[in-house]
Fold each of these.
Amino acid sequence: MTDVLDSGGAGRWVRLEDAARGATLHLSGEWRLASLAAIDRALRATPSVRPVVGVGGEALTALDTAGAMALLRHLEALAIDPATVDFAGFDPAHRRVIEVVMAMQVSGHGEPGMHRRNVFAAIGFELEALGRLMLGHLNFFGFLAAGSATVLLHPGRLRPREIATQLKQVGISAIPVVALVTFLIGIVFAYLLGLQAKSYGATIFVVDGVAIGMAREFSPILVAVIIAGRSGAAFTAQLGTMKLTEETDAIRVLGLSPMDVLVLPRVIALVVALPLLVFVGDVMSNFGAMTMAALTLDLSPNSYLERLSLVLTVRHLGVGLWKAPVFALFIAVIGIRMGMSVSRDTRAIGVNTTSTVVQGIVSVILLDAMFAIVFQKLEI
Amino acid sequence: MTNPETMIAVEGVVTRFGSQTVHDGVSFSVGRGELVALIGGSGTGKSVLLREMIGLSRPTEGTIRVFGCDVWKAPADQLAAMRRRFGMMFQDGALFSSLDVAHNVAVPLMEHTDLAPDLIWPLVRLRIALAGLPPEAGTKMPSELSGGMRKRAAIARALALEPEVIFLDEPTSGLDPITARAFDRLVRFLVDDLGITILIVTHDLDTLLTVVDRVVVLAKGKVIGDGGVDEVMALDDPWVRSYFSVRTMGGATGARGDHGT
């Protein structure tokens, strides 16, 4: 009459009693989450000879919702409506757990929300998102232009105190790191050029290489990249947090304009500070190169400076210094807009800050390439 | 309530931050299947005590046992086993913001069980349903949820491993009264139908008056009251009196409303 299943110790969990009117599942042991895998195996191993008409819970010592779910899923897999099954001998608490789980009517098996896109679709979506981002930047640029025009007409709306605070943060506080990095690059650059120049006995031309190379290209790029990482990221994080804590909304409600209070001071400060920092970079890199030249190339600081005054014309210096405010404008616009556009979600600040740094660096390099082409055509 | 099995035992807990004593010998216990509320004015260290119970902050003195296991002295493997037996709902949910609700609920199941995905995902759906969320909530990100849904999602995650005890930190704070009462019913359902023991830190008078079995009142670093709501309301303590007086006035307004109809 009764066949006890022993395949894989299934009998420990469930025993099938086969009678003329149908089968009854007798459950035993602790039907808990901890044993769910074994219970599930035992249920799968139970032969489905005849429709299950009853479930017996006399030998059940514990039952949690996971256990109840396994039982109900088994009945469901056998295409049996649990409502028609006679649950007998259950402890009232166990009975209630079964009723609760039954009432939940949970359906579905797979991982929810998993719709994998193929590679091309994914690239397409990324590109679309990038396009939207760029349009958004352009839009913001328009707002910035309008805001600047307003301030030009009403200079009283300019906030000197905010600008000064920002100038200190993005300019003065950045001097040490800018000075250190450009000094070290000056050393490396002089060493690199010195190796070549020495073999021709032309060590004096190291000065030309370092001074012109740094002033025109490397100092602006290096400093802009540092500032994109430093101040661009800071703008996004500051404004993103302010957005999240509704500070930007408070500014608006108090009748102030976020453009005047938050945006313009940062843009102006960065546009003013970056050329100055690039100049710091010009000076420090030559200082580094001069040190290196004196130590390894037998080029005295006197002769270095003398050569420097000959080769480093205002034209070369100007190329670098003119590029800087354009870089600054892009870094500021990206940083501010990425901050202002965080969604109501703490994670978004991190995502946007990372994005700001990447966009800032890429845009600096793109702009520099464009400048190179333009300057070449103009023969500057 | 008559069940003698002690799930949580707090014995002589003293907590000091520098020279400031927050707890000065706090003792109480929670038995299996009870729904106990921990109340007290701000600064009485309710949340600190809760953090000490779940092993996040260390009390200066005293012992805290959960399932008979000393939270601050037991060996690591015992602690790990103990942690799997309770769930915690943080005040604002503390959902992982990079995962959707279903994957938030799946985290404990994936980390602490060796179940196959075809068992994990139905379980996750069951937890989401038990917490009173619609099935489609599973694919939402935490940032897309309302406050009430976020708290339900947090309950679903706390329920993941079939806990015997759940700690709730101010579950109804920031919810509108209707959502808050629905949440109270959810809490009561977990206790009555699933046999879960719940310790709840709350300010919400309605929660106290409608669903809680027992109230523990914390004041001046000690437990000044421990019993049913009626017993606690009768306490002769200025904070308790002013706390419950709000409700007495509310009751009067309600009575007037009844006369009107």
Amino acid sequence: MQVPILKQGAYLIATVQSALTDEDLKQLRDTLVLQVSKVRARGVIVDVTALDVIDSFATRTLRDVAYMIRLRGAETVIVGIQPEVAFSMVKLGLTLEGVATSLDLEEGLAYLDRKAKAHQEVRAHR
Amino acid sequence: MRVSIDCDSDVVAARQKGRELASQCGFPSTDMAVVATAISELARNIVRYAVRGEIILRLVQNNGKRGIEVVASDDGPGIPDVGLAMQDGYSTSGGLGLGLPGTRRLMDDFEITSDFGKGTRVIVRRWRR
């Protein structure tokens, strides 16, 4: 199951449409890390609203995506973690430490905009 | 219900079957996600460590309580030290090491038997509140 990745302005938006196998998750990770440099994206949103399970492997892969993209100089936000998924993740002991999360796509975009603005201000003051 | 596990996509299939069964049993959506997540961890362990095995899902009753039982078994290499494998953060495969201890936290009942060289069987249950 391929995850469609859309470019919107300086951002890439990956919208997960259905359950992903471990192989699908790895492919998503690799594609995003490559795409972010290719299109010179400043931010990446991974929308996981459609996922009914985020287990240890999915958590680790999402975390890796965010860390790898940060090393490429862009920001990542995971959006749309469902309440029952959040409950199961915490019970299992999974955290997305150091990874930005937002309620939904709209909040995720607002987060990236704030980050981009702060980045510009820092540059302007130099 | 029996799901044979020998590849990545079987992990997804098993947890979807578990979710369906939990839904039939009248579990609330939080419990459905909990059961599906536990199945996902157990099924992945089979693929990763034993290559193949099976997951059996069934509805169970105890003193009028209804629940769902998941039996994950394989005849893979077994776990040399079960105590160690139950510790948070211990992994021999470079994973997070949360699969087994996390599954125990997710479910109400948890039993594991592993014979080194013969295989592993994990039985978990979640009861309806």
